[in-house]
């Protein structure tokens, strides 16, 4: 196929793994990333792994002129839109930045896509849009009621997309709601490398195992779950990346016109199960202490992944052991993460 796929946020955690898969699948890609939460080195590692070049643009989705010139100069067939800020706690402290970056940035991108007549999009939403759904299992038609600013930015973008599609049926949109992506490419060359203190469980455990942190604070062991700790739907990043390739194929073929799709395994694991599995694959002890619950946390939630199976013919392949194994492989080969 002539033309490229524009990947915003393509040097980030999910974007880098997806970019590699797209290159391996034969797509030409252009990555646009402002490097606010990623490193230039990621680009070189993707190229090395793919054994294939691509264009990288150090740029920002909020920069209208830059988007205009990208869409004017390049033949773009579709956009996969990862770029965004994602730290829940930060979103409460810096709401203006979150609305500006995520909502205004996305609006800008969609406007310029429409002007350039590029109407095929895969968007990174989050299970956080369900908020506190009242039942642990989330289906795509579960009511949306995000409880934090980050989640609200995602819901606003989803709503904008619903409105765009209604007004202009030519758009083809797949809106992916990720549950808890973890793990890394099996080579250990790319992986999750949060800047500053990680917020999420797996990078915290990995950094404890490598000796960068002393112990894990387990947020509560008195939930109504089998061992009392919170249960989540962790999903291997390779499965997440494959789902993007499948989504892109569907919209490029015109098989899907507009769909919200959960990306999860449907099988939740507790904090203690993650610790135990990580210890068994890394042969490292993960010291932990039970503390009080984290504000805003739910006892458990997980995806009903059946729509992804029906629509994308995609199903998560990897289990918790493989997720921990690849997280550890990445962390042990890159103790300080990416260098540059
Ligand atoms: P990430 O921070 O690793 O990647 C996001 C990338 O976007 C980074 O490389 C960052 O530099 C870039 N970026 C941010 N703002 C930008 C801007 N204005 N212009 C250009 N580039 C910009 O995050 P990730 O984990 O790869 O997540 C990707 C997307 O998926 C995000 O939109 C996130 O909200 C969403 N998501 C992630 C998770 C998760 O657990 N990782 C869960 C649900 C949804
Ligand atoms: C968090 C976000 C959610 C976001 C998701 C993926 C909050 C309240 N929710 O959800 O919006 O979509 O990340 O990016 O921040 N845990 C500990 N100790 C820690 C860290 C986590 O015990 O130091 C526990 C949590 O209580 C939870 C589990 O580990 O039970 C997973 O936590 P985390 O990785 O932060 O994911 P979510 O809670 O699903």
Structure overview:
The protein has 340 residues and is of the alpha/beta class. Helices cover 40% and strands 19% of the residues. The chain has helices at 13-24, 41-50, 64-73, 88-93, 95-115, 149-167, 201-209, 237-253, 271-282, 306-312, 320-333, and strands spanning 4-8, 28-33, 55-58, 76-81, 120-126, 137-138, 172-178, 180-182, 216-219, 231-232, 234-236, 258-263, 269-270, 288-291, 300-303. A 7-stranded parallel sheet has the order 3-2-1-4-5-7-12, sandwiched between helices. β1 (4-8), α1 (13-24) and β2 (28-33) form a beta-alpha-beta unit. The protein is globular, with a radius of gyration of 19 Å. The structure holds nicotinamide-adenine-dinucleotide (NAD) and uridine-diphosphate-N-acetylglucosamine. Nicotinamide-adenine-dinucleotide is lined by residues 8-9, 11-15, 33-38, 60-62, 82-86, 101, 105, 124, 126, 178, 180-181.
Characterize the main sheet: 7 strands, parallel
User: Secondary-structure element sequence?
Assistant: EHEHEHEHHEEHEEHEEEHEEHEEHH
The small-molecule ligands in this entry are:
nicotinamide-adenine-dinucleotide, uridine-diphosphate-N-acetylglucosamine
Whole-angstrom Rg: 19 Å
Count of individual beta strands: 15
Helix content: 40-55%
Strand fraction:
15-25%
- Head-to-tail CA distance between termini: 34 Å
The 3D shape can be described as globular
Low-confidence stretches: none
Let me know the average pLDDT.
96
Notable traits:
binds nicotinamide-adenine-dinucleotide, 340 residues, four-stranded mixed beta sheet, 11 helices, globular, binds uridine-diphosphate-N-acetylglucosamine, seven-stranded parallel beta sheet
């Amino acid at each position: 196929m002539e033309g490229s796929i524009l990947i915003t946020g393509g040097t980030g955690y999910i974007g880098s793994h997806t970019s590699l898969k797209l290159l391996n699948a034969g797509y030409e890609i252009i990555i646009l990333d402002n490097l606010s939460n990623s490193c230039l080195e990621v680009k070189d590692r993707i190229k090395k792994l793919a054994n294939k070049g691509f264009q990288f643009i150090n740029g920002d989705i909020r920069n209208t002129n830059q988007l205009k010139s990208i869409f004017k100069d390049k033949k773009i067939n579709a956009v996969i839109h990862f770029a965004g800020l994602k730290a829940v706690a930060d979103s409460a402290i810096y709401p203006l930045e979150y609305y500006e970056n995520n909502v205004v940035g996305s609006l800008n991108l969609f406007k310029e896509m429409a002007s350039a007549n590029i109407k095929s999009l895969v968007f990174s939403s989050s299970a956080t849009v369900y908020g506190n759904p009242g039942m642990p299992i989330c289906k795509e038609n579960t009511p949306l009621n995000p409880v934090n600013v980050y989640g609200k930015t995602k819901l606003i973008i989803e709503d904008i997309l619903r409105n765009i599609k209604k007004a202009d049926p030519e758009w083809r949109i797949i809106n992916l709601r990720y549950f808890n992506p973890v793990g890394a490419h099996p080579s250990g060359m790319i992986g999750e490398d949060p800047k500053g203190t990680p917020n999420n469980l797996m990078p915290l455990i990995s950094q404890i195992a490598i000796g960068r942190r002393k112990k894990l604070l387990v947020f509560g062991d008195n939930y109504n779950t089998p061992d009392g700790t919170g249960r989540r739907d962790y999903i291997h990043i390779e499965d997440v990346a494959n789902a993007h390739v499948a989504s892109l194929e569907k919209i490029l073929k015109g098989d899907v016109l507009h769909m919200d799709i959960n990306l999860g395994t449907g099988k939740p694991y507790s904090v203690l199960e993650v610790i135990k599995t990580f210890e068994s694959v890394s042969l490292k002890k993960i010291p932990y202490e039970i503390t009080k619950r984290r504000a805003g946390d739910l006892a458990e939630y997980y995806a009903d992944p059946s729509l992804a199976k029906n629509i994308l013919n995609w199903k998560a392949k990897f289990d918790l052991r493989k997720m921990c194994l690849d997280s550890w492989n990445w962390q042990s080969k890159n103790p300080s993460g990416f260098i540059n």
